[in-house]
Amino acid sequence: MFEMFFKKNLTDLDGQEFKNQLLADENAVLLDVRTAGEFQSGTILSAKNIDVMASDFNTKLSKLDKSKTYFVFCRSGNRSGNAVNMMKKEGFNAFNLVGGIGAFPKN
């Protein structure tokens, strides 16, 4: 009965899992879904920025290559979780960094 509350979403990865899968996937794209200002203040090396809260998010999403695997993050993991859910509905293979950018291992 309680398993639905504790069941891990298969698209949610902790920092180390996220980094390991990102580095192992030849088709990986790192996607920062924070605002442009947040992105400019610092991001993970090689990340592309598409603001999930922007009015043109769906338009930009439709231009992405569905043959790629997307590793998505934000500040805390909430916006990126929403972005991954939207992406999954559109047929993308995408993973969310639980805990946000701060959970990504430095080395």
Automatic annotation (TrEMBL):
<dbReference type="InterPro" id="IPR050229">
    <property type="entry name" value="GlpE_sulfurtransferase"/>
</dbReference>
<feature type="domain" description="Rhodanese">
    <location>
        <begin position="24"/>
        <end position="105"/>
    </location>
</feature>
<dbReference type="Pfam" id="PF00581">
    <property type="entry name" value="Rhodanese"/>
</dbReference>
<dbReference type="InterPro" id="IPR036873">
    <property type="entry name" value="Rhodanese-like_dom_sf"/>
</dbReference>
<dbReference type="InterPro" id="IPR001763">
    <property type="entry name" value="Rhodanese-like_dom"/>
</dbReference>
<protein>
    <submittedName>
        <fullName>Rhodanese-like domain-containing protein</fullName>
    </submittedName>
</protein>
